[in-house]
Design goal:
Strand content: 25-35%
Distance between the termini: 28 Å
Structural class: mainly beta
Number of strands: 12
Number of helices: 1
Number of domains: 1
Largest sheet: 7 strands, mixed
Length: 181
């Protein structure tokens, strides 16, 4: 386990006005219920189910260290248990969809090496999505989060780049993403 999870796990650094957010229905609407042990946390990475076009986690959380599916992934931007999300028709969840952005996240494991990846150690390092295990106010959870990507030989999709390391940022990993990959 690397970082912990808390009430806010994904927060903007840059202005969010030019960032395009998109609300998409969940494949499993029970994932927005905070009483569900598998509930989603802000900062988890999501993708679209190819059959329905609804949101699913980018990485299978059945086992820690599973690489993400080889499809586009977007970060979830809704804190656990928000009533407005639970009340939306089709139980839609907001994703950071388009344009460039910079956010800080706690949903990462800097030490994890998944596949041919690498630990998160340097600025400008690419990151990818994998299933990770984190502890925090919600107990230990397996989540779809960020891990380091190796500079060569790692064919998993890059979703963002490191702009500030957790050791120099009070435990938060700062990432830059959007239309960069």
């Amino acid at each position: 386990m690397a970082s912990g999870t808390q009430r806010v796990n994904f927060r903007p650094v840059t202005d969010v006005i030019p960032t395009i957010r998109r609300d998409i229905p969940l494949f499993d609407p029970t994932l927005c219920n905070p009483q569900n042990a598998l509930s989603l946390l802000d900062g988890e990475w999501m993708t679209l189910d190819p059959g329905t076009g609804k949101l699913i986690r980018s990485a299978a959380i059945t086992a820690v260290g599973t690489s993400a599916l080889q499809v586009f992934s977007w970060p979830l931007w809704a804190e656990n248990g928000r009533y407005d999300v639970q009340a939306m028709a089709d139980t839609k969840m907001p994703l950071i969809w388009l344009n460039q952005w910079e956010f800080e996240t706690l949903i990462f494991d800097a030490a994890a090496i998944v596949g041919s990846g690498a630990a998160i150690t340097t600025r400008s390092q690419p990151v990818k999505v994998a299933s990770i295990s984190l502890g925090g106010v919600y107990g230990t959870k397996t989540l779809s989060g960020l891990v380091g990507k190796a500079s060569s030989g790692d064919t998993d999709q890059t979703v963002a780049y490191v702009t500030r390391l957790p050791a120099e940022n009070s435990g938060w990993l700062r990432i830059r993403g959007g239309m960069l990959y």
